[in-house]
TrEMBL record:
Bilayer-crossing regions: 52-85, 97-121
UniProt keyword terms in alphabetical order: Membrane, Transmembrane, Transmembrane helix
Taxonomy, superkingdom: Bacteria
Protein name per its UniProtKB record: DUF4190 domain-containing protein
Region (Disordered): 1-39
Claim: Transmembrane helix is one of the keywords in the record: yes
Protein species of origin: Actinomyces howellii
Pro residues composition-biased segments: 16-34
Lineage: Bacteria, Bacillati, Actinomycetota, Actinomycetes, Actinomycetales
Length: 128
């Protein structure tokens, strides 16, 4: 071999070759149900994911229905808190929807208390 040969290694010995990447962290796999795929199958929605959807729906309805905010607004806050706790424990994957439901429920309660305090709803209540 000559010095112009591209197959010749400097020093006469081949360079070490890294094995191909196998994926995943080294060590044992995480326990099932903690947000990681189990046996290569991604985690799907659970019944705790419904808490986020319920919180969002109750929050939106508490904003739209201006005479029943205490019923739906408080329910949106309670269900949203349960959804956030479930997401923090890894049992749900839609924490953002729960937070939005909490914010909408609280906003509707605050707006309606201010509306009744300043008599903004008195023309509407005269029909009742």
């Amino acid at each position: 071999m000559t010095s112009d040969d591209p197959n010749q290694y400097p020093g006469g010995s081949p360079q070490p070759v890294q094995p191909p990447y196998q994926g995943g962290p080294p060590g044992p796999p995480p326990p099932p149900g903690h947000g990681y795929p189990v046996y290569g199958v991604p985690r799907t929605g659970t019944e705790d994911d419904a808490l986020g959807y319920w919180s969002l729906g109750l929050g939106v309805s508490s904003i739209i229905c201006c005479f029943v905010p205490f019923l739906t607004g408080v329910a949106a806050i309670i269900v949203g808190c349960l959804g956030v706790f479930a997401a923090n424990e890894g049992r749900a994957s839609n924490k953002v929807l729960s937070i939005i439901g909490i914010v909408l429920g609280a906003a509707s309660i605050i707006l309606n208390v201010a509306g009744f305090a300043f008599h903004l709803f008195s023309p509407l209540l005269s029909f009742w």
